[in-house]
Design brief:
The protein contains 8 helices and no strands. It is mainly α.
Length: 227
Amino acid sequence: MERAYDRMEAEFGTSADVATFSAGGVYDKVGLLVILALLTGAVGYGTDSAGLAIAGVLGGLVFYLVGIFRPATAKVMAPLYALAEGLALGAITAAYATGSNGIAPLAILFTAGLFAGALVVFRSGLVKVTQKFISMLLMATVGFVLVLLGGMLGLFPGLSSQTGLLVFGIIGVVLGVGYLFVDFHYIEVFEERHAPVEAEWFGALLLMASLVMVYLNVLRILASRRR
């Protein structure tokens, strides 16, 4: 983990600005990304287009990967990711909202609540992000994605049932909160190291991706309860 942080610091280089990395700066940028996602999300929700959802997901994936492997580009990639994912999430929310009035604002409120709760738990010291924690989280994520792909291929028809949506959604939320803990740890370490202020965009990109994961699975849970 320390080597990974060293590599990221080397990617950003040194900053000539007086300002350095701060948690507050990251959260301000996350707020901006959420606003961008909400704007395009309204477009995606209004069109309710499967093609738009796919385009948003693929575009968001490309922007995310570029920002992750080239952290110095996160200043550009993070807003593009938020715009693309907003389109996708809006269209996906519209699909889940069929016959379920008010699911969108509830999903947004629950996601915000989970974010705030995870931040409080992390700052209280109840959760320690270690190499073992990250390894277990990654292994669980691989299994989660494999089951998700299997469900898309029709191998697990029960995933679309009320119980399947609920169980799968709960597992996804737990994983998403786990990634929020990892992101909070990143922010804490870079703040302690007085990293360049440009690294805040990388932290914002990480948090935004975790919030997207939490939101999608909150949608599953809400959809299961309304069936």
